[in-house]
Amino acid sequence: xxxxxxxxxxxxxxxxxxxxxxxxxxxxxxxxxxxxxxxxxxxxxxxxxxxxxxxxxxxxxxxxxxxxxxxxxxxxxxxxxxxxxxxxxxxxxxxxxxxxxxxxxxxxxxxxxxxxxxxxxxxxxxxxxxxxxxxxxxxxxxxxxxxxxxxxxxxxxxxxxxxxxxxxx
Length: 169
Description:
By secondary structure, the chain is mainly α. 76% of the residues lie in helices and 0% in strands. It has 6 helices and no strands. It has helices spanning 2-19, 34-46, 48-66, 72-85, 97-118, 127-168.
């Protein structure tokens, strides 16, 4: 129960930072995708089920507050969280390379899916503009923030594991 509450608080705080605080720190007109970092991190650290659930609730918040319909962002985040869970078996806490590679791939796939759902289907086909003005700057910014934010999430996850093990004893 403590883990669910903690993860819920992390999702809400990440959403609030992403949608408010980081808009004052825009670089090249984009903000980092903190919810994607949270989804990727818990998928890697805890597995497919947890990645899927964190992704669903992260996407649901975005759909509720910024989407015109419920579902697209929930589906995208869920898919990415579940996919990251496949790498749980090769994940090591000390490893920084895998999470950095995964956030790069995740952010690119996320933005391609957003482009397809929100732009291509509306006959807005300027992909090169979207790539250079949105995808690449957001990827770079998200990667830079991941270096710091991921370490915080790892510490929280390790603390949650210790608390769970202490409760068993």
